[in-house]
Amino acid sequence: MIILLVIHIVTMILSLLLMAVATVAGLAGKRFAAILSSTGMAMTAIGGLSGGLLLLSTPLPRECVELSLYLAAMTALYIFGFAMGDADDARLIRSSVKNS
Q: What does the domain layout of the chain look like in residue ranges?
């Protein structure tokens, strides 16, 4: 149970960091933002799955509801902002700097 909790905490922290950096990089027009967002989304998925497994043994605390909202927001950001990792179609990566 402790290992699952550590996996959950580490992957959710990495998810927050990677998605924040990807968002800033995307707004700056950096194409590597799509790769960062894909990695961040993988961390979000692992953290979400480990969180789901943790919920099987404990009641639903407020933090889990907040992280579920985070999971939904990051999924929407990944799909609509980063075009699921495709830098050419990503709306968040500024088009004015896209070709430089």
A: 2-85
Give the span between the Cα atoms of 87 and 93, in whole angstroms: 7
94: which DSSP letter? Answer: -
Rg of the Cα atoms in the chain: 15
List the alpha helices (DSSP H) in 1-100. Answer: 2-27, 33-55, 62-76
Distance CA 21, CA 18 (A): 5
Summarised one tens digit per residue, pLDDT across range 16-57 is 999 999 999 998 888 899 999 999 999 999 999 998 898 888
pTM for the whole structure: 0.80
